[in-house]
Amino acid sequence: MPSRPKRKEPAESELAARGHRRRHGHVGLGAIDGDRCVLGRSPRFAPTMWSCLAGFVEPGETLEEAVAREIEEEVGVRVGDVRYFGSQAWPFPHSLMIGFKARYLAGEIRLAEPEIEAAGWFRVDTLPPLPSSISIARTLIEDFIARKT
User: What mean pLDDT is reported for the chain?
Assistant: First the structure.
C-alpha cells in the first residue's frame, strides 16, 4: 500500500486568518482533604474574596499533571486522584477554564508569593466570601458543600 503524504499543519497565522484561534487551557482546582478544601486569595481579587486555585497548562503536560503541579507550586500541597469536574468559557481571549477535583496527599500550605497572598483549609462552616456563582470555581465549591452537608 502506498504511503500517504504527510499532511502539513497550517501555521498559527493561517489558522487565525480562517477564524481559528489557539486555545489556552486554564485549570481550576478543588483540592479536598476529607471535610476540608483548600482555597486561596490573589492580590487581584476583590477584598475578602477567596477561591479555588487556578493556573495554566504548560506545553507537553496533561491537564491532570497541570493540576498537581499548579497546586504544589501555589500552596506547597501535593495531590493525587485528579478527576475532571467541568468546564466553562473564560473571559481571557482564546481561553477555556477546565475544573478538576483532587485529593490531598501530603504537605503543609506554603504560599507562592506574590501570586498567592493567602491560602488555607476550610470546612463548610468556616468558608470565607466566595467568587461569583457563574464561575466554575464557585461550582466546585458548591459541589464540595453539597457533599459535606
Answer: 84
Q: What is the DSSP string of 36-78?
A: EEEEEE-TTSPTT--B-EEEEPPTT--HHHHHHHHHHHHHS-E
Q: Name residue 55's beta-bridge partners.
A: 27
Q: Please state the pTM of the whole predicted model.
A: 0.80
Cell numbers representing residue 125 in the block: 462552616
Report the top-level CATH class of 24-148: alpha beta
Report the C-alpha gap between 137 and 147 in whole angstroms: 16
What is d(CA 26, CA 91) in angstroms, rounded to the nearest whole number? 11
Half-sphere exposure in the Cβ direction for 134 (13 Å, CA): 3
Q: What is the pLDDT of residues 136-149, one digit of tens each?
A: 999 999 999 998 88
- Return the domain boundaries, the chain: 24-148
Q: Using an 8 Å Cβ cutoff, are 82 and 102 in contact?
A: yes
What residue ranges in the chain does DSSP mark as E strands?
24-33, 36-41, 53-56, 78-89, 95-106, 118-122
